[in-house]
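Quick one:
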Amino acid sequence: MARMTEQEVYFGTSPVYKTGEDIDGFIQRAVYHYKNTASKKHLHGWLEDYAKSQGYESVGDTLECFCVYAKLLLDKVPVTQDYITELHQEIAKRAIKEEPKQDKPKAEHTPKRKVLDRTWITPFDNLIDDAFATGAGTKDFKVFDYCLSNNLTKGQTKEAKASLEAILNEISDYKNDPDLTQAYGIYSDKRIKQVTNVLSEAVSDLSRYAARLDASAEAGKIRNGKNSTLSDVVSGIKCMPFFDELKISSIKPDKIVGASELYVYDTEHRLLRYYKALSADGLGVKSAKVIGWDEKLSFVRTIRKPDEVLPLIINGTPAKTLKQIKDLKVVEKPMKTGMMSGTLILLRAN
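Output:
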């Protein structure tokens, strides 16, 4: 081993491996540097770096041998040349150097992996950012129109809706969760309310678009002959055939399919349901539900004098009928369901 200078003994030298340096010289420098200026963690790191620099495959095993060697030097245990030779042999035995890796021959024709286009969801991400930043949605971005013009699939619609609903769920009760409080606590209550309104409206539009897809799919089944008859499609619809108290009867359920609007009377609660179709495809039927109706334009109203109002619906023109219903001084509520039951009279379908 090379003799160290007085300065190297007292202050140590940087234990960076020098090209061509043997193990003995490197470990001796690392040990002396450790004794004067560093910690055991540093020593361990230097030895590990050395093992990796030499290309040893089993760095852990090699490092163990190096540490034994270093400990002997630290404890000033006399080390004979035979022992050093034996230790070198053990290192060679336990840590075989890696063989140079050969590049695999490239295939002449490697099929390109299809990259899924995710740009469709960017406007929804921007909508969230804008809602938190300004309290308003993205300017000129209409969710329903965007879905319609870009022909979003049912899966894409579901994914976008789920991402918005996840945020709505978080901000609805964020003050009771320390982690969420840290994330959303920087916003005022007013801003949180604004964000809730923006995202809720977007979720509503996505629901409308999803309902439109369902209605179009059902209509497509009829056009393509996948259902043998229209009667098969509407077989799950339940209604009251005749209401003796008012002497009114239900229209045939098959009139619902393709209709632009539908009037239904709830005989149990004296409620009038009005369904407005989302698109030119009209309303659809799925099992016992009416589908494809616009959540914003459809409504429910209480009828105080059904014996006077219902004949107007049955016998009036479409435009005049809707105006008369709108003119009634009763509270209008949003439509919540398209489920039909045995207490309902199907009044009219246009």
